Amino acid sequence: MTSKNIFSPEAHRGWLPWGLLSPFLCIAFVVASLLGTSPWMESLGLQTAKGDPIGLVGLYAFLPIPFAFNGLLIVAWVWLVERRPLSTVGLTGPAPVKTLFGGVLIGCLMILFLVAAVGLAGGYSVAGAGLALASPTVVGSMGILLLCFIVQAGVEEFMFRGWLLSAVTRKLGLPIGVLFTSLVFTFLHWSPHQHWLIMLSSFTFSAFACAWAIRDGNIWGVMGWHAGWNWLLSIGFGLPVTGLVVDLPALLVRLIPQGPDSLTGGAQGPEGSWICSLFFVVGILVLLRPRKS
């Protein structure tokens, strides 16, 4: 396998877009999925005019529906325009289900370490433990959310670390592929007046995920990791995940942020902390180490 064929050396039989065009196509796919689902979800009272989910039912819809629509758009593009198999966008390798849920476990462990690191640095006070366990209904809702996050995170990884990374890499090489993928990921997670630490965290998050996908030669593990990370962060501590707050009692420990936003991440959650960016840089260095022969 050459550096320009990350996941599979199988050739494309259709039109592979120019390297500089692929990032704009990625943004267009996201916009199209939002335009195709947001008016309908808003009419049903599942989200606000700004696109934010309303209540738990709204979150159940917000996570899978637009992302699934987005994933179908990319599958159609890969099959009908580029005409290449899905193995070339990372859906390859043995034991995909085992690898996916292994990634979920790693994602949960990593977010535990991140939250613990911020807490040890003085970023949180504790306001209760295991509050969700008193309600089977709440625990059931958390199980549903895990499935929803698997769809959401799985499609994001398929789009960014699967399709976009492979498309740009085939045209412009691996370093440019990682750079463009991470820049587009950061742009699509950007909001006005966002602190630069949050943008740095988004960029390093993407670079870490790219390094994982490249090292594994598929995206199953990183799909699971992304889902486990988002899920446990959203329900484990009462903290925001990428600025989104899940209105459920904390599964593990209810934490109250204290101290500067640069430490806690503020309204963004711990992903906006400088510790998170450092965390991903260390992870990238670990993934870049040569494998033992």
Task: Walk me through what this model shows.
The chain is mainly alpha-helical and 293 residues long. It is 62% helix and 4% strand. The chain has helices at residues 22-43, 55-62, 65-82, 96-120, 136-172, 174-188, 196-216, 220-236, 261-264, 274-288; strands at 124-129, 253-257. A two-stranded antiparallel ribbon has the order 1-2.
Give short descriptive properties of this protein.
mainly alpha, globular, 293 residues, two-stranded antiparallel sheet, 2 strands
Shape assignment: globular
Cα(first) to Cα(last) distance is: 17 Å
Radius of gyration (CA) equals: 19 Å
The computed structural class is mainly alpha
Mean pLDDT: 94
Care to count the β-strands?
2
Largest sheet: 2 strands, antiparallel
Uncertain runs: none
Q: What's the order of the H and E elements? A: HHHHEHHHHEHH
List the total number of helices. 10
Query: What percent strand?
Result: under 5%
Helix content: 55-70%
For the biggest β-sheet, the strand order reads 1-2
In short:
The chain has ten helices and two strands, in the order H-H-H-H-E-H-H-H-H-E-H-H. The protein is mainly alpha-helical and 293 residues long.
